[in-house]
Amino acid sequence: MTTRIRWGLLATGNIARTFATGVQHSKTGVLQAAASRNLEKALAFCESFDIPTAHGSYEALLTDPEVDAVYIATPHPLHAQWAIKAAEAGKHILCEKPLAMTEADVMAVIDAAATHDVFLMEAFMYRCQPQIATVIELIKDGRIGDVTLIRAEFGFRVGWTPKSRLLDNELGGGGILDVGCYPVSMARLIAGAATGQGFADPISVKAVGHVGETDVDEYAAALLQFPGGIVAQVTTSVRQGLGNEVSSMAAKGGSRLAPPDSARAKKAASAPWKLQQAVRAKLWKSIRLTIYTRLRPTWLALTSPIARPPPLP
Question: Is the pTM higher than 0.90?
């Protein structure tokens, strides 16, 4: 029998609630404990999710022998501090992004995890989704040809709440570290797949953005140049809604990826087109991906019946 990972949640905010909801449906993990700097909040959180143990301090969670791994859901500036302490306590670590506020702190966290031989992962959940694995497989196999352009954007409009973590500079607010990391991460993943690597580093970056009244970046865009002639355009915002999708253009066509729960993806999943049998066997029914080309015979269907492609020019 496989032993399930016993999770301890370090902080009890909104993102911790999202994580806890997911673990409740997990076959490999179980909620064991949660900690807040306020014991009453920890007790209320644990009651909501039927978690056995509530701790009134983060230190108490890290010394709990019943906890195998911790999920760090504090505000950004506290990530490095508690990730290092978790490593020192021998706990495996899943840390919300960004892993830290500076490169130096990131390297310190990595060094602590290596020194104490614990697993460390930055919580880019999209990397674990089957649709991403399918996109990368198609790019590596050359089915859409050589990738030339990538567009990735992730953003939303938050209300004017200057003391919220998204707009408060002291809490590590701003779009780039909170959500801008997603399009950059995705662009590096696609560029890496296109050049035979796990990921690629840009050889040049040009960026512009807007800093608002609270001294955080409210929206920004950048052009990234990768080896192999690949260019990526990435956009992020916490003060302007965006399309929240990723597309890549290549010699034979391209790919366009929408969030799995978006209306666009659901519409694509319900349209009356048959799947290509060789691809269907490899995909989960939850995949919401449309691969398009200029030549009708080369269209690939990647999930349950998807939307009819647009007419050729």
Answer: no
